[in-house]
Amino acid sequence: MSKAVRFAPLALLVAIIAALVWRLATPVDTDVHSAMEGKQIPLFKLPAALPSKPGLSSSDLASGEPHLVNVFASWCVPCVTEVKVLQILKESGVPVEGIAIRDRADDLADFLARNGDPYERIGSDAQSEVQIALGSSGVPESFVVDGKGVIRYQHIGPIERSDVPLILTKLEQVR
Amino acid sequence: MIAEAGLAALWLAAGLAAFQFLLMILSLRGAAEVGRAMRSIAVVQGALTLIAFAMLLIVFARSDMSVALVFKNSSAVKPFIYKLAGAWGNHEGSMLMWVTILAVAGAFLALLSHRTSERTLLAALGAQAVLALGFYAFLLIASNPFSRLWPAALDGRGLNPLLQDPGLAFHPPTLYLGYVGLSVAFSLAVGALLTGEVDSKLARAMRPWVLGAWILLTLGITAGSYWAYYELGWGGYWFWDPVENASLMPWLAATALLHSINVLAARGALKAWTMMLAVIAFSMSMVGTFLVRSGILTSVHAFAIDPERGTFLLALLAIYVGAAFTLFAIRGATLKEGAPFELVSRESGLVINNLILTVILGVVFVGTLYPLFVEAVSGEKLSVGAPYFNAVAGPLALLLAVLVGIGPLLAWRRETRPVFKQLPVPALLGVTALAITIILWPAMHILPRLGFMVAAYLAAASILPLTGRNPLRAPLATWGMVVAHFGIAVALLGMASNAAFTSERLAIARPGEILSVGPWQVQLQEVTPTAGKNWTAVEAELRAARGDDLVTLAPQTRYFSDPPMETNESAIRTFWNGQLYTVVGKQDASGAWQLRLWWKPFVTLIWAGGALIALGGALALLGRIWRRRARHSADTDFRRRGYA
Predict the structure, then answer these.
(1) Other Cβ atoms closer than 10 A to A81
(2) How many domains does chain A fold into?
């Protein structure tokens, strides 16, 4: 056996260990960037979830102004706290649109009466079809959509009070 | 006090391991008289780790919430068996189990091994002590299982509900026994490289350990596959998940080793290669443990990486494997290869077997670690999934299965007869199977089609070594080989059938509705709430009918409270020709239920094949031990009569 062959396993091991050490030493980037960012919002037309408010369609979003689209549901516990943060965003001039996932009208009305109602329009997505088309895997999630209807940012999980500046910056960037 | 006693036992064992290592250096320098001391130390060290592990079991059995580990991984309301299983269903406990098995294996090596020369055995015991020493340090410094919680908690946080399953309670111990059994092969190889005594005697001493470890790995992988199949509720039996690959890689290396070791034992050839494989097999066990325990591969799935643990394990891996490879590089030149062999011979058949297994191992290794390296180089995140593994490893495995039918028919050293003349029946069966699939199912994919062909061929070819003589006179080891190779054909048939003929039905159903899946008509009767000791559930009642067969199935969705989690308990009914597999999911807004139904013809053959492979290994192991016994007693007889 030649020297090169005998030392090959050792050399390979050193290379692998070096790569693993590098991997352990570098901080992990746990942000998973949405594949939807930069894409046109899918075409949809959702019926009104409540008699008192209009439904939501993709043409409402390509209005020239940026929007915040919030995917939520009355049965979702984190949505209770999030809706109050959305209220703050609304008060600072952000148009907030809602997509209610697998919801019932009376439950939704109760939810908004109890926790506040920041939404301009609420579309009812009874079978999660639009939610899936948007690439959203759960509730709540929110999308910053620019004036041409292009998704600029996907926020997974509830928008916390501390996220307000982030959302406002994202909206400002696409104005 | 119990936790402290466990910790003390662990410290003592670590001290003894260090001492054992020092004695090994003395023995390598020529002090032969340390042998006795080393054996006793190895045994006491094994006993101390057993005591430490028993102490851990006791604190878990008593739900002693003043021990941090119990608090984090158990709760007072759990069934007793899962309280015990909680002891190894976590990082610290499983590492303690690992080191316990390692030390106990060392003790058995000291007690039982009389095959090798004393020098090599002592060197191997020293190597085993160094291995254990690293893991003691890991436990005592970075993951103490006995640390206390102050103040003590009232109740614990519970065990992951997915793990609350009798199969999984015994799955990790089985795999660990397999992983760590390979440590003995590693130590013997290192010992032999140190003393330069790489010969057939060493191979015969190593073989039972490799066989034993390999049997347990086979069982562990088979059981783990069945667990994932019924517990996860996805209907699949292998997902090429990094954790699964972590158990497959040592198995592949051990399978290669198992075959090459026979060449070394019978012919004294393939010395360097066999030593290399013995090192690689245990290295793969450590790589597997590192991957699973450091969380390095699952980071995208939001598990926290623990850098300290990962670094520690990686350092151990680098030191042990690096030292073994260095030793190999230095001593490899001194290895004299044994008897030469010709191109067509049993030896070259086994060399080809080893090559293919090693390539498959490389394929799995690269596929498992590839996402890591891509991210290191380009920062891009990706995952390597089943399509890659199936497309690359699948054809290689089929090729290997074809050769499995031929290899055992070859003679050692030089085959003069034309081997293909022995294979008309298997070949005919294979071609027939292929023709049938082409005629009856023209749309079938290529891999299952080839799978049917190879399975039919191999089922017949694998039993050829028993024909042409009285099969009852054949050595037990030959029977073992035949059973294991036949098991491959059986498993392959199950996989091909599952891939080609599974019917799947995902539907939303209201009570009363009838769905059809394969030959079955399944009616949803009703969905009712139910409860167990630490969970509540909704249970669907399904009536399934096929001709005269009428069965009731009750799949559940369970909600566990501590920790909060939801699991699907699939309901599976096994028939001679397949399994009906049902899962109930969520209720939609209109009150209908999600149902997932599968009819999987002959899917059980996959695990039956796995069990047969393990059984073959067990027969071979028994055969080797018996023959050795017989030879040993004949030896002593001989001496007693005064001929020696």
Answers:
(1) 14
(2) 1
